[in-house]
TrEMBL record:
Cofactor: binding details: Binds 1 NAD(+) per subunit.
Protein known as: Adenosylhomocysteinase
Gene, per the UniProt record: ahcY
Pathway: Amino-acid biosynthesis; L-homocysteine biosynthesis; L-homocysteine from S-adenosyl-L-homocysteine: step 1/1
Task of the protein: May play a key role in the regulation of the intracellular concentration of adenosylhomocysteine.
Length: 418
């Protein structure tokens, strides 16, 4: 088995952490149990480009239990947990290509290694596998029955591909599942982003001004958690509806040009490019802390920051201090990459339980239904979404009401009025 990891000797530590995560993943456990019995993915080659975390490792284990032949590479150079990569290779015999801190050349080499598996299904976290196939590895297209995508950023890329007619196989947007973005994006990103910021800086949020760029589900979660810790939250937006929602949720809303002057922490989570730019760095407070929790490291214009700076030093792990020409300092966290995975451990396993349940069941759905699907982006089927929610409640020991026959009749009729 071919693989490229940091150190196989880390596997025992990773195995224990993987078991700890599994304890909070009851839905995926139930799916794995069924997969082991029914083998719905037997003979299916899956190449996954995901964050190599304890939760991802449990997904890989579930897919393998279902009969899949799985290969994994990292979806971000800083998100890999090296002990987990070692565990997958050593204990589960899953070919893994991921090293925390790998350079761009190694990152794309690992993507090519995953694609050498000649996948029938791709699992993406940012659409790098799909984009590489369509641009460089078109000979793989006949093998593919479909793919899945985990992130907002990746879905944006895939819908653009579909609109332009270049997408050559169906892809299921796991990100659009209610049991994914309502929970993973809001509660997972909200908690793990603040966790990453605090681990990197050990600075006080209470009493600080926290600027959140973007008020999608991730931005909502970050703003909620920052406010809960006593932060004074400012939201920047381009969408008037989301801006109104942020105001009604109790936050100040203003352009980044104004927020840049008063923010202590800046967190981008838009999925777009150059959200914090040269003109914003030029007016920031001395000691401002800037980070990103969107998928790619393009939201902060790092080249502009470097041009403005006369000196750069790594003052703490994951903290690069840039001294500007006038002596002010701007601190960039995690090289502008996903701070919740660069300096922390990503989303809690109880949240990823639902996200990865969607991944597993979507892979099964592709095997069953790919002949009936067109070359476009599909949502997770509502039945799968609802079943995951039901299983999650069951795992949490929560019971809910059921409609009575009379209530069902009332909701299905139009005759009954006031």
């Amino acid at each position: 088995m071919d693989y490229d990891i940091k150190d196989i000797k880390l596997s025992e530590k990773g195995k224990l952490r993987m078991e700890w995560a599994e304890q909070s993943m009851p839905v995926l456990r139930l799916i794995k149990k069924r997969f082991k019995k029914e083998k719905p993915l037997a003979g299916v080659r899956i190449s996954a480009c995901l964050h190599v975390t304890t939760e991802t490792a449990n997904l890989m284990d579930a897919l393998k239990a279902g009969g899949a032949d799985v290969v994994l590479c990292a979806s971000n150079p800083l998100s890999t947990q090296d002990d987990v990569a070692a565990t997958l290779v050593d204990h589960y015999q899953i070919a893994t290509f991921a090293i925390k801190g790998e350079d761009n050349k190694t990152y794309y080499k690992h993507i090519q290694s995953a694609l050498a598996h000649k996948p029938m299904i791709t699992m993406d976290d940012g659409a790098d596998l799909v984009s590489t196939i369509l641009s460089e590895q078109k000979q793989l297209i006949p093998n593919l029955i479909g793919g899945t995508e985990e992130t907002t950023t990746g879905v944006i890329r895939l819908r653009s591909m579909a609109q332009k007619g270049v997408l050559k196989f169906p892809v299921i947007s796991v990100n659009d599942a209610s049991t994914k973005h309502f929970f993973d994006n809001r509660y997972g990103t909200g908690q793990s982003t603040l966790d990453g910021v605090l681990r990197a800086t050990n600075r006080m949020v209470a009493g600080s001004t926290v600027v959140v760029a973007g008020y999608g589900w991730c931005g909502r979660g970050i703003a909620m958690r920052a406010a809960g810790m006593g932060g004074n939250v400012i939201v920047t937006e381009i969408d008037p509806l989301k801006a109104i929602e942020a105001v009604m949720d109790g936050y100040r809303v203003m352009p980044m040009s104004e927020a840049a002057k008063i923010g202590d922490f800046f967190i981008t989570v838009t999925g777009d490019i150059k959200v914090i730019r040269k003109e914003h760095f030029e007016v920031m407070k001395d000691g401002a802390i800037v980070c990103n929790s969107g998928h790619f490291n393009v939201e902060i214009d790092i080249p502009a920051l470097e041009k403005l700076s006369k000196r750069k030093r790594t003052i703490r792990e994951f903290v690069d201090e840039y001294t500007l020409s006038d002596g002010r300092k701007v601190n960039l966290l995690g090289e502008g990459r996903l701070i919740n995975l660069a300096s922390a451990e990503g989303h809690p396993s109880s949240v990823m339980d639902m996200s990865f349940a969607n991944q597993a069941l979507s892979a099964e759905y592709l095997v069953q239904q790919h002949k009936n699907l067109e070359k476009k982006v599909y949502p997770v089927p509502p039945k799968i979404d609802a079943e995951i929610a039901r299983l999650k409640l069951e795992g949490m020991g929560v019971k809910i009401d059921k409609l009575t026959k009379e209530q069902e009749k009332y909701l299905a009729s139009w005759e009954m009025g006031t």
